[in-house]
Design goal:
Layout (H helix, E strand, L loop, with lengths): L19 E2 L4 E3 L11 E2 L4 E5 L4 E4 L2 E7 L6 E4 L14 E4 L13 E5 L8 E5 L11 E8 L2 E4 L5 E3 L3 E2 L6 E2 L1 E4 L5 E2 L26 E2 L3
Length: about 220
């Protein structure tokens, strides 16, 4: 694991100030999730860090921008100059507000058209339609829990900077405390309401992560 120096200044900051970095360094956990070399994990993405294994899992989410009227399995996701989804072919998805059913029945991604430039469409095709899915709904990756579909876990941190997935180890830094600052929620991948506390201003699993609607 390598230590990195991080700057929070730039044209598009996603924190209102410098958050606290969890010390020691971590690596991306690629054993339990799909990532390809070159994939981009945006800054401010929901994460789960483990101080024992020194690994980080990513809570993959995205918001629906459009659904094809000809084929409801074809979905356009919000993508902009701040961030794009980090899904992979084979990931299984459900609506974040209604994760239920068996893992086997959850639709999987069969293809992805990733934007080559800022603000270009990010289009996924699923193996099956998600019943009741609508524009602005949040999708989340699900994993197998016994035979059921479930989110990978409750996020306890956020990625601090954009991470490019490497061929071997991928170093990744996270914050578990935004201190007196906050993450600009509208500049990061969507945070499902189910993962926020009752005020919608903090992560449910970590009240030291403050959320802001500042843009």
């Amino acid at each position: 694991m390598k230590r990195t120096k991080i700057s929070f200044v730039g044209e598009k900051p996603i924190f209102t100030g410098s958050p606290q970095i969890v010390p020691g360094g971590f690596n991306l956990d690629r054993e339990k999730q799909r990532f390809s070399v070159g994939d981009i994990i945006p800054a401010g993405t929901l994460a789960i860090f483990d101080e024992v294994t020194r690994k980080v899992q990513i809570v993959k989410t995205a918001k629906v921008k459009a659904i094809s009227t000809k084929d409801k399995k074809v979905i356009t996701l919000y993508s902009n100059g701040y961030c794009s989804p980090c899904f992979s072919v084979g990931d299984k998805l459900l609506q974040a507000k209604s994760v239920s059913g068996t893992f086997e029945d959850a639709p999987s991604i069969v293809s992805i058209e990733k934007p080559g430039v800022s603000n270009a469409p990010y289009v996924i095709t699923l193996s099956a339609e998600i019943s009741g899915l609508a524009v602005d709904d949040v999708l989340v990756e699900v994993v197998e829990s016994s035979t059921n579909a479930a989110v990978i876990g409750e996020p306890n941190s956020l990625t601090i900077e954009e991470v490019t997935v490497k061929e071997f180890e991928t170093a990744i830094d996270v914050t578990e405390d935004t201190m007196q600052y906050a993450v600009m929620e509208r500049r990061v991948l969507p945070i499902p309401d189910s993962m926020k506390d009752s005020t919608k201003r903090y992560l449910k699993a970590n009240s030291h992560i403050r959320l802001s609607q500042t843009y």
